[in-house]
Amino acid sequence: MEKIKIPINDEDYVEIYSLALKENNKFFKQHKIIINSQIASSRQIFRNKFGNSKDFKKQAREYLKKIGVIN
Questions:
Q1: Is the torsion defined by CA of 5, 7, 9, 12 positive or negative?
Q2: Of 2, 4, 27, 53, which is the most exposed, with the fewest CB atoms less than 10 Å away?
Q3: Which residues contact 21 (CB under 8 A, 6 or more apart)?
Q4: Which residues contact 28 (CB under 8 A, 6 or more apart)?
Q5: For residue 36, which phi and psi values (nearest 5 degrees)?
Q6: Rg (CA), the chain
Q7: Where are the alpha helices (DSSP H) in 24-55?
Q8: Spatial distance between the Cα atoms of 23 and 32, rounded to a whole number of angstroms
Q9: What's the pLDDT at 65?
Q10: How far is 33 from 25, CA to CA, in rounded Å?
Q11: Residues 6+ apart with CB under 8 A from 7
């Protein structure tokens, strides 16, 4: 019987989940759905904030510079 590792920090949870993905492929489908949902949500948030025009990248970069994320 394999001893189950008790998660202590976030990295432990990631390790346990990655091992579970190796064991059971259904977790991969679930994970893919979650990631695609996060991507769609992020895309919508940025479109709402900066619009869907040609200068989307320019507006996003100006905002990120203003809040100090990029130089």
A1: positive
A2: 2
A3: 27, 28, 31
A4: 21
A5: -65, -35
A6: 19
A7: 26-50
A8: 16
A9: 95
A10: 13
A11: 13, 16
Q: Which residues lie closer than 8 Å to 57 by C-beta, 6 or more apart?
A: none
Backbone angles phi, psi at 19, to 5 degrees: -65, -40
**Tokens found for residue 46:** 């940025």
The pTM score is 0.52
Asked if residue 65 lies in contact with residue 71, where contact means CB atoms within 8 angstroms, the answer is yes
Are 46 and 40 a contacting pair, CB within 8 Å?
Answer: no
The identity of residue 52, as a single letter, is N
How is residue 2 written in tokens? 């394999």
